[in-house]
Design a protein that fits this description.
Chain lengths: ~550, ~220
């Protein structure tokens, strides 16, 4: 991994002293990274772990004993016996001076700046800057520039770290951004009116901007950073499964931000995934279980509904079972659904439908990351669990046999939006579990509200056959419950006396015991970054 | 070895040997394009370019200019390194660097057009807008300022009949400020196209403007 700055295991190490504490780091580690390992966070703008370091922001200067002047810690490599002082009077004075220069033309419009609260200029000035500015001259004013796409540029706030320029050069390999003009007139811009339109990873420049110069138009003036809750999650946009954070407020997802995972997405994510969060906020949710077909449908509590459903399933023992799953539901839910089907009778179909894009969209500078063809997060999980894809690339059609099935019919997470009201008319038992109601669920004997991935814990399997956990960022509406909880209870009852999983961890350990592909994995062991499936799923081809 | 007579007046006065006309120094032939033999690659983008006829619609690059462009490319290890002289050559031909020109140079060198724009706008000696027949650059940096450069600038603006940074209506003069022309010994220094006028005071300005007008009419202007 050349781009994460870490030396391969077994490489030589060096021992140096940073702020009177000894630290041993791999050879080739920069002082900035060594200080971070030792617990000292040095300020930096131009340095970013995913990009080259030009050492031009001058804010990470530290004192190195024996060096004639302060050294930029982002490009100075740690050496044996080095004595580094990050907070010597000399270094502090220099950084204070550098910060004063940064503020010469900065508008200090923090109250209306989207970055306020997570801004590095704000943080550093608060920590090490002067209490009061000494400038008497008027500040120069640029106003703002619409770069197209989702990106808006405020030239006055810019600290000219050129992270965005280097991202487009080195990672997106589409050198559309540059520094135009010089000195105090310098701004980031594209080639005249060209803009960033059509650059499918350009949203990352907003993430890596250390100040509020590049902001998202979608998020503009929508929420303050300190009002947002952050939840680690997995992007539902495609089967790449980029690690993300759900930023939520008022029980609504406000934006998605990439979360670092060197194996999956590095520091990045695509604009398609980033813009794709509105579906998580969709209203009109199913909130309470209901039992009964058509006009006979009545609300029922969970106990009542599950009790009735258990009795019906026992009565239907040995029936022909067809299952419609969804690649947007967790592995635990899909596995429990498949097991409930198998306990009930002969499963003759396990299918799911999902949207497909025409082609992949790869990030040239981080080729492991692409917006994949499958536009659902758990396509590979569903396949691993024995579901097969039906229908067209628009996630429609393909359910003719299922619709006319006369046995037991389970639907989980598929809205059946393209299906007619006669769907499942012939079914002896039709169980509809989902987040939203559907006209095609009119014939369902049971309508059970289940939570989306953003409201529950669970796991997805991405295109690299990597199992990744996600955490609940939103409160579930009404009585909606995770599918694994509902189906786990049902399965335990059907199997007679088995303990139902009471937590996502228990559901996953049940899954690891039940399915060979998941064998050997532990929920704790997956951690925040996930782990590869134990055995590559047959027939899918390893990614 | 016979000793050369020691001659150092101690000041850069007129010792006779430097009393040369412009044509003596640059040559009349050179002022119409590059030396016929093309010269050494290292001087391909050098002096005469400032004197070529400028045509905003001139093609990039053809004939002898293509030859020079190829020399420029051969001289530098990367396309980025060759960009400055390539832009010089383009400006020599067209008089200024329009967005279209930047785009063409970018395509010829295989660089992104945004990068070319960044470089072109960084350097003040690239004209990003059309300039007049004479580009008058008045130094207003310290030495010249102490000797009244602001008055010289005002005099040029008045006699050329234009605003700072603008071109006069007849398209003859563009007057701009310049930062240090490296002639601090002879303030105020004014660079007009490729010529230096040193020790210029406000009173000299009408004479210079008249001389330029005269050169224009006689066809001797460079």
């Amino acid at each position: 991994m050349p781009d994460n700055g870490r030396s391969p295991a077994g490489a030589a190490t060096v021992t140096l002293t940073i702020d009177d504490r000894e630290v041993t780091v791999p050879k080739g580690t920069s002082l900035l990274e060594a200080a971070a390992l030792q617990g000292t966070a040095l300020p930096h703008y131009c340095y970013h772990p995913g990009l080259s370091a030009p050492a031009q922001c001058r804010i990470c200067l530290v004192e190195v004993e024996g060096a004639p002047k302060l050294q930029p810690s982002c490009v100075t490599m740690a050496q044996d016996g080095q004595v580094v002082k990050t907070d010597s009077p000399e270094a502090l004075k220099m950084r204070k001076g550098v910060l004063e220069f940064y503020l010469v033309n900065h508008p200090l419009d923090c109250p209306i700046c989207d970055m306020s609260g997570e801004c590095k200029l704000q943080d550093y000035v608060f920590a090490e800057g002067r209490e009061h500015g000494r400038g008497r001259e008027p500040k120069r004013v640029f106003g703002r520039d619409d770069f197209g796409g989702d990106v808006l540029y405020y030239g006055d706030r810019c600290v000219m770290c050129t992270r965005c320029v280097r991202f487009m050069d080195e990672v997106a390999r589409d050198s559309r951004l540059t520094v135009v003009e010089r000195g105090s007139r310098a701004v980031i811009d594209t080639f005249f009116d060209e803009g960033l339109e059509g650059a499918s990873f350009a949203g990352n420049v907003v993430d890596i901007c250390p100040v509020g110069a590049l902001v998202s138009k979608d998020f503009l003036h929508k929420a303050r950073a300190w009002d947002l809750d952050s939840t680690p999650s997995v992007c539902p946009g495609c089967s790449q499964g980029c690690n993300i954070e759900l930023h939520t407020r008022d029980n609504l997802v406000q934006r998605l931000k990439p979360r670092e995972n060197a194996e999956v997405n590095g520091h990045w994510m695509c604009d398609f995934g980033r813009a794709n969060y509105e579906g998580l906020n969709r209203g009109g949710r199913l909130e309470a279980p209901a039992a009964g077909r058509g006009a006979k449908r009545r609300p029922a509590g969970w106990d009542e509904a599950l009790g009735q459903l258990f009795a019906r399933l026992q009565a239907a023992a040995g029936a022909d079972v067809k299952i419609v799953g969804s690649a947007e539901w967790s592995c635990e839910g899909l596995a429990a659904l498949a097991a409930v089907g198998a306990e009930t009778g002969e499963v003759s179909a396990r299918v799911f439908r999902s949207r497909c894009a025409a082609d992949e969209d790869r990030l040239p500078g981080f080729p492991a990351l692409a917006r994949r063809r499958d536009l659902a997060p758990n396509v590979d999980g569903a396949r691993t669990l024995g579901f097969s894809r039906v229908g067209g690339e628009d996630a429609a059609g393909g359910l003719e046999e299922v619709a006319a099935h006369d046995g037991v019919l389970f639907v989980l997470g598929d809205d059946l939006a393209d299906q007619e009201a006669a769907f499942g008319e012939a079914a002896s038992l039709f169980v509809y579990m989902g987040a939203h109601g559907s006209e095609a669920a009119a014939n369902a004997d049971f309508v059970l509200p289940v939570t989306t991935f953003a409201e529950q814990e669970g796991t997805f399997v991405n295109v690299q056959q990597r199992v990744q956990r996600f955490w609940p960022g939103l409160r579930a509406p009404g009585e909606a419950r995770p599918a694994w909880l509902v189906l786990g209870a049902l399965l335990a009852a059907l199997r007679g006396g088995e303990a139902a999983p009471a937590s996502a961890a228990a559901a996953f350990s049940w899954l690891a015991g039940e399915r060979a592909a998941f064998a050997g994995l532990s929920y704790e062991g997956l951690g925040a970054e996930g782990a590869p499936l134990a055995a590559p799923a047959g027939g899918n081809g390893a990614a | 070895m016979s000793e050369a007579p020691f001659r150092n007046p101690g000041w850069a006065g007129n010792t006779g040997e430097f009393d040369l006309a412009e044509a003596d120094v640059r040559g009349v032939v050179a002022s119409d394009g590059p030396p016929a033999d093309g010269g050494h690659p290292s001087v391909a983008p050098s002096l005469p370019y400032m004197l070529a006829a400028k045509d905003p619609a001139a093609p990039l690059f053809e004939g002898p200019h293509l030859e020079r462009f190829e020399k420029i490319k051969s001289r530098y290890p990367t396309a980025r390194a060759a960009l400055l002289p390539a832009l010089n050559l383009a400006q020599e031909l067209r008089g200024f660097l329009s967005p279209e020109t930047m785009d063409e140079v970018a395509a010829l060198l295989g660089l992104s057009n945004a990068y070319v724009r960044g470089v072109a706008t960084f350097y003040t000696m690239y004209n990003k807008r059309p300039v007049g027949r004479f580009l008058v650059q008045v130094c207003t940096n310290i030495s010249c300022n102490l000797r009244g450069a602001e008055d010289v600038l005002a005099a040029f603006l008045a006699h050329a009949g234009t605003e700072l940074g603008e071109t006069s209506e007849d398209g003859t003069f563009t007057v701009v400020e310049a930062e240090c022309l490296a002639a601090c010994g002879f303030p105020t220094c004014v660079q007009i196209n490729s010529r230096y006028f040193e020790d210029v005071g406000p009173a000299d300005v009408p004479g210079i403007v008249d001389r330029l007008q005269g050169e224009l009419q006689s066809g001797a202007a460079v």
